Amino acid sequence: MLANLRQVKGFSGIMVGWTIFKEPHVRFTKMQGAGNDYVYVNCFEEKVADPAALARAVSDRHFAIGSDGLILIVPTEKADARMRMFNSDGSESEMCGNGIRCVAKYVYDHGIARKTDLQVETGRGVLTLKLFLGSDGKVERVRVDMGEPRLRPEEIPVTVEGDQAVNVRVDLDGDEYEMTCVSMGNPHAIVFVDDISAVNLERMGPLVENHPWFPHRTNVHFVEVRSKNEVVSRTWERGSGITLACGTGASAVCVAGVLTGRTDRRIVAHLDGGDLELEWAADNHVLMTGPAVEVFSGDWNPTS
């Protein structure tokens, strides 16, 4: 069966994208946080039978909506809403920092919960979010309590010896790097470099993501330190490839900077899609603050 995309708000005319797909009609909203964009479905009102297949279908940037993946906003008794996040390859991930900010914006702006302090259930537990409103009364920025980083190798997971995977020497295609690994509910490998513009991310990202040290693969971040409070970071996301931003990744970069003595506990991370503010607070929780933007809404319609 073929599926097409029609009646997309925010565009003049009709957008049409084609993919082999059997999901019934579903209403969606496209949102982005620092350029990390996802297709969101309000499962308080819609049903998604096969989210992995839907993620693969809608994510195609040439023949569909185009996104880094799919996020479902789902009812739960544990919080104001639950987030389920699927990468563009259909694999489900435990957590998405930029995605959860957009979930919070959707929940508030669309009246699911009209509170500026929200709780959202994720694959790594229930997280607390603080919403900041713009002059139009809609959510503009969100601060997320990302929880405590997990540093023991078996918790990340990464198969290296020792209590932490900090400045571990690793060979990548004949070149040796130092890598620090952190879990923010999902695995991250951080590689600090002198010149980020010299990194061929398209080549290096898959080498780290699929390195045999990572039994569940990993997200990858190459980072150039500008000062104790400022870094530039580029991301290769597990299951999605190069993305403009990664909120859990930026949080992991903040932790890795402190662990390796490169940065202070409060930093600004300059990502390809924008800036995020990070703090590894005294209570061991990482706080991440950044934008959340609704782009457009539409209908994903099957047709024979």
What does this entry look like structurally?
The protein starts with a strand and ends with a strand. It has four helices and 20 strands. With 304 residues, it is mainly β. It folds into two domains: 159 residues, Roll (Diaminopimelate Epimerase, Chain A, domain 1); 132 residues, Diaminopimelate Epimerase, Chain A, domain 1. The N terminus is likely disordered. The chain has a 20-stranded mixed β-sheet that branches.
CATH superfamily of the largest domain: Diaminopimelate Epimerase, Chain A, domain 1
- Uncertain segments: 1-21
- Share of helix, binned: 10-25%
Order of helices and strands: EEEEHEEEHEEEEEEHEEEHEEEE
| Cα end-to-end separation | 6 Å
Q: Helical stretch count?
A: 4
Summarize the model shown:
The protein has 304 residues and is mainly beta. The protein has helices at 51-59, 97-109, 201-209, 247-259; strands at 2-6, 19-20, 26-33, 36-42, 69-74, 81-87, 92-93, 117-122, 125-133, 139-145, 168-172, 175-183, 187-192, 219-227, 230-237, 241-243, 266-271, 274-280, 286-291, 293-303. It has two domains: 2-147 and 291-303, Diaminopimelate Epimerase, Chain A, domain 1, CATH 3.10.310; 153-284, Roll (Diaminopimelate Epimerase, Chain A, domain 1).
What layout of secondary structure does this protein have?
Layout: E1 2-6, E2 19-20, E3 26-33, E4 36-42, H1 51-59, E5 69-74, E6 81-87, E7 92-93, H2 97-109, E8 117-122, E9 125-133, E10 139-145, E11 168-172, E12 175-183, E13 187-192, H3 201-209, E14 219-227, E15 230-237, E16 241-243, H4 247-259, E17 266-271, E18 274-280, E19 286-291, E20 293-303
